[in-house]
Each structure stands twice: as C-alpha cells, then as structure tokens.
Amino acid sequence: MNAITLNLVEEAARGWEAMDDQVHLWRGRCIDCFTEAERSISQTLIFLREHFGHEFVVKQGHLFGQKLTDLGEAFAQPKIQEIKTAKKAAQALERFVQYAELRKDLCHGDMTVYANRQGLWLAQFKVICLGSQTVKTHQMVIDHDSADETLKLLRKTVQSLCKCLANFMETPPESTVSPSSPSAPAAPASR
What we know:
This protein is of the alpha+beta class. It has helices at about 1-50, 65-75, 80, 85-95, 100-110, 145-170, and strands at about 110-115, 120-130, 135-145.
C-alpha cells in the first residue's frame, strides 16, 4: 500500500513539474516577443534621432512604456507623417500597444499557477502599482487555451510591428509624399 501511494505522489509531482514548466515556457516566449519588439522600437528611435533630431526632439526614454510613448509621439510629427511607410508603422505600433498591459503582468507580476482536473493550467499574475498617493493591485488570470491564443496573436503583432518599422527605416528620409511637391513624370532618356 505504501508503494502505491508513493507512486501516485511521485506521478502527481512529475505532472505538476511538467505543467509548471509549460507555464514558464509560455511566459518566457511572450517575454521574448516583447524583447524583440523593444529592440525594434529602440532602433527606430535611434534612426529618428539620427535623421530628424535637428527638426524636432526625439526623446530617448529608458523604460519600455516611455519608448512606446516616444515613438507614438514621433509618428504624430507632420514631417514623419510625410514618409510613405510611416502610416503603416504607426498603425502597427498602435496594434502592439494593446499588449503593453500583458507585458507588465508577465514581467512584473507575481505568478501563481493552478491546475484543473484535466491537467491544464491556469496562471494568476498580481502586480502592485504604487502611485504618489495610492496603491493599486492589478490582477490578470489566464488559462492554458487563452494563453496559447494570446501567444499566437502576440507573435503575429510583433512580427508585423518589426516588419513595418524596418520598412520605415529603409525609406530614405527625403522620400516623402508631400502635397506641395507633386512628382512629375520622368523624361524619356536620350540616346
């Protein structure tokens, strides 16, 4: 009888370890996506500073949220909006910003993992936010299936963001669409 009980306990412990590993693997993959996005956002801010720093101030925030705000403000600048690829890049950034709260939860949240009888996990993240006069607790709960879907959507959104920002940086700053300077057709080449 003791051997059977011990085997059940060992089996349950192995199952729990595998489930806990799944949650941490999911969390890590999401954080990798955010890291890829932050690298691309930082590179874009550096590009803007190098090419447009003389026309307006390109802020260089240190924290992730500051970088998102800084890039959003830069895309709102009229000179930047003239660049052909800026609109798509700004739209991709807007889609990505929707995941900022998830990033905060995953990177800063205290995680508790629960298991259901089917062997699927549920993760709870708690974040304490300190204000100047207030303390707020934010909580997010996500189950296994929702987590998988969230990761798929996050990956797709980050890939789109990185592609759009790369396209934006490949567009020469002088390559703009300006209503005040319509383009004339090219003259035929002479032989």
